[in-house]
Design brief:
Elements lengths: L2 H126 L35
């Protein structure tokens, strides 16, 4: 046998071995592909109902979200209405209430002044009565001292805080 024949036989044996290895690989690949197809079919059979359930759940969640959005919108409108009603009530009742409180405060001050004047007159009457000596000194101001409201700083009762 010549070198060319030997090379041809060697190449033929190597090609046959390669074909055998490739045939085994293709058979293994076909078997793996069948198993993969079976797994994909099982996955599809179990996943499609889950996807349908998920789709139904998403639709329900979307409907609930729209309902909650409507409820929040109503709550915002109610809050705006209550706020408006509160402002109107404040505008309606605040001025008469303030005027009433100032009337009561003024009446209290007038009552105190009348009471202080009566005390002062009584003191003058007692001082000018014949039973007391003529040298009794009568204070020029009411018995409580000078009128503190006419002095700078005034009485604490007459001061108001501005808000």
């Amino acid at each position: 046998m010549t070198a060319v024949d030997l090379a041809a036989v060697t190449v033929t044996v190597v090609c046959l071995a390669t074909v055998a290895v490739l045939t085994v690989a293709v058979i293994s690949l076909v078997r793996t592909m069948r198993e993969l197809r079976d797994v994909v079919d099982d996955l599809r059979d179990s996943a499609l109902p889950m996807v349908d359930d998920l789709h139904a759940t998403v639709n329900k969640a979307d409907a609930e979200l729209h309902r909650v959005d409507r409820v929040i919108g109503r709550a915002e409108r109610i809050a705006a209405t209550v706020d408006h009603a509160s402002r109107l009530t404040h505008r309606a009742f605040a001025p008469p209430l303030i005027k009433g409180l100032s009337l009561v405060s003024g009446a209290g001050q007038a009552g105190r002044r009348l009471r202080d004047r009566r005390r002062h007159r009584r003191a003058l009457d007692v001082a000018s009565s014949p039973e007391t000596p003529a040298t009794v000194s009568v204070p020029a101001s009411p018995p409580g001292g000078p009128d503190r409201r006419s002095q700078p700083g005034g009485s604490r009762r007459t001061r108001r805080r501005r808000r």
